[in-house]
Amino acid sequence: MMPVWYGWNNGIPTPSSPPDDLVPVDQANFSWPMWGQHWQTKGGAGEPPQIEPVQRLLELYHKWQASPDDESQAAAWNEMLDIHADQIFAIGLVSAAPQPIIVSNRLRNVPKQAIYAWEPGAHLGVHRVDEFFFVE
């Protein structure tokens, strides 16, 4: 069984970006709600992952959390991505869906087309909202 969903929120990871979309740590993730629930409730509900690749993802998540530097975080990320490339836990079907936004004619420095996603930057934050400005 495989969910139909938008896939990963944004494909611009850095070593310090939390790899939460790659690991069963959230019951709202349609790829593994029971495993995510098990994680979130510290074993009080849901069920633990029974397949080795997902168990390895959790090991790598712990490794990423405890990593002292970018190199070891990047190594954990890369192995997680390799596991996903091999196992295909979800296929995202919605990409680059238009999201119109309303902007005042007085607001400047707003891109005409842009990424609009929660990660990274909480929707428009990746576009340096602090550099938007109003004119008279």
Please tell me about this protein's structure.
- The chain is mostly helical.
- The protein has 2 domains: 89 residues, no CATH class; 41 residues, no CATH class.
- The protein is built from 3 helices and 4 strands; from the N terminus they run βαααβββ.
- α2 runs antiparallel to α3.
- The longest helix has 18 residues.
Order of helices and strands: EHHHEEE
- Principal-axis shape: elongated
Largest sheet: 2 strands, parallel
The termini sit apart by 56 Å
Helix content: 25-40%
Question: Which features characterize this protein?
Answer:
4 strands, 6% strand, 136 residues, two-stranded parallel sheet, two-stranded antiparallel ribbon, mainly alpha
Task: Draw up the topology in text.
Elements: E1 4-5, H1 33-40, H2 52-66, H3 70-87, E2 91-92, E3 107-108, E4 133-134
Parallel strand pairs: 1-2
Antiparallel strand pairs: 3-4
Helix pairs in contact: 2-3
Nutshell version of this structure?
Helix content is 30%, strand content 6%. With 136 residues, the chain is mainly α.
